[in-house]
Queue: 4 jobs
Job 1
Amino acid sequence: MEISKYHIFVCTQTKPPMVPSCGGMGAGKIMELFRKEVFNAGLENEVVVSSSGCIGICNRGANVMIFPEGKYYTAVKEADVKLIVDQHIKGGQVVTNRNDPDTNIIKSEVNMFSARIKAMMADAGAL
């Protein structure tokens, strides 16, 4: 059963000062703007906007993932939100200036980040 046509995840993870994080790059405000734009467009019954924890590429924040396509938007700024809702959600076209089309680079960065987290957890005795 399909609950919504789109699900927008905004990483709002906040890390210690001097460590790049989406939360530190204004992602909370960006998430609220996505909600506002979805409501303004009358799409609240078709689009869910949620916060998420870290999705991997912190130095590119604020990061947004849109499903069902699994599209990553990186370095999203407040000014990008309306364009993403209008062009991607309403129009079905990916916003190319915020989406890295090279999925291999994105996967590589996410895998590198995941490996660092796994090593830190192992060092801390959590694995």
Job 2
Amino acid sequence: MDTPASALLDRLADRAWPALESEPLGSWTLRAAGGVTKRANSVLAIGEATAIGDAPAIGEAVDAAERWYAARGLPTVFQVSPSASAALAPELRRRGYRSGSATRILVAERAAVAATAPDAAAAITVATAPSSGWLDTWWAVDGRGGDPERRTVERILAGGPALYAWAGTAEAPDAVARLALVGEWGGLYAVATLPSARRRGLARALTAELAREAGEHGVGRLWLQVLADNSGAIALYESLGFVPASGYTYWESPQSGR
């Protein structure tokens, strides 16, 4: 498949995991969701952000972003990908921002992923809403925080159409995954397997089943994000037909104290 533009992938992910509050700053998007997940609480820094005022310098745009997050009691975090201005990273470095959470974006043709055979037989259910225990399983593996943060995640998940898959019972799944539906694209998120159910091929089976079901919803291509140092997950997804297309890092203000 043709490699999609980095800016397109950035915008797809923004729609697939939407912030609860967002505001344009030129070509950038300021996003907040009470500090729950960096994706929903960071500047989507596409382009030069020159549409505010009379083409301000990059420093003025960063100043405006910092004021916006300070007003919400949040650290300023930038998601910096190849679609960002070349001047942004040097400006953030000058201010003492720290970069981390390097992430790769992989893409695949849906039909190729759907055609892969699972490692082992597994009963997978796919629905347009999560089962009663879907979030319990995901939160047990990847959740950060208490009940308020969990309620915020529930609102984020409800921000757009998606398919939800689980292995095992609806009340207590062994593994779960979500495929956000964004036009002809499907974005894989929240793949999580309980420690007691690992090494059974459930993540592979969930991904393939979501790809098959997504064809009924007009999806032709898939994307996902994976931490660059997660070699096991990268190997799994490459075996399913995913290939590298882009990536990003998060740059966090020194005032965050983290």
Job 3
Amino acid sequence: MTYKVHTIDHIGIVVHDFDGAKAFFEDFGFITRGEQFEESELLDKVVGVKGAKSHIAFMEAPHAQINIELTEFIHPMTPSVVEANHIYTQGIQHICLAVEDVDGIIESVKQKGRELITDVINYQDIYKLCYFRGPDGIIIELAEKL
């Protein structure tokens, strides 16, 4: 059977520093499209805990091309200590945004106090790349096609 997958609807990111994570994505141009506290039987089933509670924000990238869902769990509580994640560890470790004017974005985001964790890299004369680290170990890669 062939499936028709059109696109990714959204990427879910669990955070402890909800407001910090929201601000981090806003610095890259994301807009909050909805925010709410959630308690439901569905959440109980998905989390596997009776009485699960969460705080969620749906955020949209400029031009509506990427959507993320930030989630902070109130019950069970999202752990406050996150081991430093590295790009080579298992699981989803970063989000790469295809951008125009990577240098302009870097300047703007650095002025907002964001940590650039690499120099700008020319990757095989195909991409200009760099990486930022945000709250809770979130890593955003910027890639500008050369």
Job 4
Amino acid sequence: MDAKVNVLNWFEISVANIMRARKFYETVFNIQMETSEMMGMNMASFPYEPMGGKLSGALVQSDMHKPSPDGVKIYLNGNPDLSDALSRVEAAGGKITMPKTKIGDDIGHMAFFLDTEGNHVGLHSQN
């Protein structure tokens, strides 16, 4: 790993109910997620272009994936303005735990929410 490559290349958000979690994230981000089953894990993948060099990930339900508000923190892309996605969180069944907050002029803004599975998830956007 060096400064020219993404620090992350994949992420997984642990879920207890794949269909409920899929509906939540599809609603909040206004996207369609593809479902699959791999090695005993139920997955719903965030949109991505294979071999496109962009980071992506999935919601994953399995015996080794346990949702938790105290687990790893990830920041999902809320560009161009995270207020758009954040405005749909509570109607989709989640809870905003940190409203849109300015980090700095050159870094942008952040917010946190609890999803329907109990995960504490961040949002980031430049505006």
